[in-house]
Specification:
The protein is α+β, with helices and mostly antiparallel strands. It is built from 5 helices and 8 strands; from the N terminus they run E-H-E-H-E-E-H-E-E-E-E-H-H. The strands form 2 sheets. Strands 4-3-5-6-7-8 form a 6-stranded antiparallel β-sheet. The protein has a two-stranded parallel ribbon with strand order 1-2. The relative contact order is 0.15. The structure holds the ligand O=c1[nH]c(=O)c2ncn([C@@H]3O[C@H](COP(=O)(O)OP(=O)(O)OP(=O)(O)O)[C@@H](O)[C@H]3O)c2[nH]1 and magnesium ion (MG). One of its GO terms (molecular function) is metal ion binding.
Amino acid sequence: MATTQEEPAPPTQARHFVNFITGNANKLREVKEILEPAIQVESQALDLIEVQGTLEEVTLDKCRRAADLIQGPVLVEDTCLCFDALNGLPGPYIKWFLTSIGHTGLNNLLAAYEDKGAKAVCTFGYSAGPGHEPILFQGITQGKIVPPRGPTNFGWDPIFEYEGETYAEMDKAKKNSISHRGKALEKLQQWFAKEMTA
Ligand SMILES: O=c1[nH]c(=O)c2ncn([C@@H]3O[C@H](COP(=O)(O)OP(=O)(O)OP(=O)(O)O)[C@@H](O)[C@H]3O)c2[nH]1
Ligand SMILES: [Mg+2]
């Protein structure tokens, strides 16, 4: 009896790939959770210099620097935590505030204000390589600052509350579906999808 030789299933082809330049393992995990398998995420951990400025200026500069260093296409991201009562501060400087004064200090910054509102803002920059102007994709989630609740493995997740739950208390899929990062990556995915059909 003739046997039919089955063709091995073709490997799942990544339709696009990005080289995400970040020193932050938690960011990388979330970006992979959201983008893969449609967009394959490679990564190089480089400590990029970050300038002072608006959220957009910080990401644009980070992206140009990364493209020059890598000499190829890059994706970078800058995350800000903007307190409404403080006109957007700490904003892009949240990393240094968090390191210096922690969750308690960040709550104390708002002690004098009734308004505990805060925006988590994620700005991705994609550059096709050195000399190519970066394209930005931004996502914003409105929440409020609360005393810490939930696991403490990612930055200010325990003090950022969205609809009654802190980011840290949410399961990962839920956070990704409503987060600043998830919203920004939705825009990036739409852009990549359009590029493919162009
Ligand atoms: O609780 C959190 N939930 C998040 O979703 C989130 N995203 C970023 N961060 C923290 O906010 C600062 C941003 O600074 P940042 O954008 O410069 O990041 P980074 O320096 O760690 O990495 P990178 O610049 O190499 O990509 C750093 O302290 C990050 O740990 C988060 N904390
Ligand atoms: Mg950084």
